[in-house]
Design brief:
This protein has 427 residues and is an alpha/beta fold. The protein folds into two domains: 247 residues, Pyrimidine Nucleoside Phosphorylase, Chain A, domain 2 (3-Layer(aba) Sandwich), CATH 3.40.1030; 93 residues, Aldehyde Oxidoreductase, domain 3 (Alpha-Beta Complex). The chain is built from 16 helices and twelve strands. The strands form four sheets. A four-stranded mixed β-sheet has the order 1-4-5-12, with helices on both faces. A three-stranded antiparallel β-sheet has the order 6-10-8, with helices on both faces. Strands 9-7-11 form a three-stranded antiparallel β-sheet. β4, α9 and β5 form a beta-alpha-beta unit. It starts with a helix and ends with a strand.
Length: 427
């Protein structure tokens, strides 16, 4: 049986109004999980979820450039949005980014931004639009006004073991992007042991679904499939990733994989939006946004308009600071070969940097700093390079995280084979 657009729209409206019970939602999600949805049904369901709430209209704002967005399926040390959004704004794009909180072992952009004292991720839609128009971008959390069906369906998916349904993941991600009123979208679909989809085949299937549905709904979309089998940046944890983002925007030291990811996604976004014809031209413009200081200026303007303390940008010691900072050394001599990123992510959760139940308060100061890169030679000697520095609130938390990290990083006698960041692009 094929579900019609009208049927899906009616069901979505019933979910948003409360007429449809959680039991009925559970039956629907399980049916989709086992029977799946066709591409047309995914497009229709995604549009139905979007239409359950408010869709942002930019026609009254006189926006002089393309309206676009970027989305990542998440990983460890994935703070790309924090750097890329102001860079894109400095290149003439407008980015209304509706981001999420941390989920399971992965960090969330909203949690990271709330490390800034005073930053309000819950401003009104009108203020959100004003900041995007005036600054070029803004990042807020999902509100009850946007795609409310998704919030109810997601909570049911979590308890019915249907979180990994491709059709439901697609609708959840794309519906919120459509509700933001964007013209184009670039997706970063992760693959590897730190990703939601761990095999390349599954990641490719998800990327194709996201691209097909988003394009089918009228938004020009590309997806880059990128590796998440090793950390994407030096730091993992909310305030620590803000620290790294500020350093990046100032043109300082940056993780090679993080830089590669930022510039590739940004270049694709600028070409898809029509601002540039070629990827190398777009990459040059992005680099100039850093060297000119304009991207950092956009970042400061956005933080200020969202109520955040911009003094943090000049003095990062104003970010939340952990009580304990301790180096972790290898238990043997050799080369870092691989990471169990899911376990590393859960070690940050156990430190208090993530949630084990919805709505739980988190500690923005905890996490891992200066994480060793794959291929590095390490030893147990205290004079050698640590595996990382743990930022913790208690000695007990620190000891537990240290044990998990040592277990999660594989050390071999020979250097590892290089794992490329990019696998392929889906259009």
């Amino acid at each position: 049986m094929t579900l019609t657009a009208s049927q899906l729209h009616g069901f979505s409206q019933g979910i948003a109004s409360g007429e449809v019970s959680n039991a009925q939602i559970a039956a629907f999600t399980m049916a989709v999980y086992f029977q799946d949805l066709s591409i047309q049904e995914r497009v229709d369901w995604t549009n139905a979820v979007k239409s359950s709430g408010f869709t942002i209209d930019w026609s009254d704002m006189s926006i002089p450039g393309p309206i676009l967005d970027k989305h990542s399926t998440g990983g460890i040390g994935d703070g790309v949005s924090l750097m890329l959004a102001p860079m894109l704004a400095a290149c003439g794009a407008y980015i209304p980014m509706i981001a999420g909180r941390g989920l399971a072992h992965t960090g969330g952009t909203i949690d990271k931004l709330e490390s800034f004292p005073g930053y309000n991720t819950g401003v009104s839609i009108d203020e959100f639009k004003n900041v995007v128009r005036d600054v070029g971008y803004s990042i807020i959390r999902q509100t009850d006004e946007l795609a409310p069906t998704d919030s109810r369906v997601y909570s049911v998916r979590d308890v019915t073991a249907t979180v990994e349904s491709i059709g439901l993941i697609t609708a959840s991600i794309i519906s919120k992007k459509l509700a933001a009123g964007i013209n184009s979208l670039v997706l970063d679909v992760k693959t590897g042991n730190g990703a939601v989809m761990q095999s390349l085949e599954d990641s490719r299937t998800l990327a194709k679904s996201l691209v097909d549905v988003s394009n089918g709904a009228g938004v020009k979309t590309s997806a880059l499939i990128t590796d998440m089998s090793q950390p994407l940046s030096f730091n993992a944890g909310n305030s620590l990733e803000i620290l790294e983002s500020i350093e990046f925007l100032k043109g300082g030291k940056s993780h090679p994989r993080l830089s590669e990811c930022v510039y590739a996604l940004g270049s694709q976004a600028l070409v898809d939006s029509g601002l540039y014809e070629k990827l190398d031209q777009a990459a040059t413009a992005l680099k100039n946004s850093i060297s000119s200081g304009l991207a950092l200026e956009k970042f400061a303007q956005m933080v200020d308009r969202m109520g955040g303390d911009t003094a943090v940008i000049e003095n990062t010691d104003l970010l939340p600071q952990a009580n304990i900072i301790k180096p972790v050394y290898a238990d043997r001599t050799g080369y870092v070969n691989s990471f169990d990123l899911r376990a590393i992510g859960m070690s940050i959760v156990s430190l208090g940097g993530g949630r084990t139940i919805p709505g739980q308060a988190i500690n923005h100061s905890v996490g891992l700093q200066n994480i060793v890169q794959a291929g590095s030679r390490v030893t147990p000697l205290k004079s050698s390079q640590p595996l990382c520095f743990i930022h913790a609130s208690t000695e007990k938390d620190c000891e537990e995280a240290e044990r998990k990290i040592i277990e999660s990083i594989s050390i071999d006698s020979d250097p590892c084979k290089f794992v490329p960041l990019f696998h392929e692009i889906v259009k």
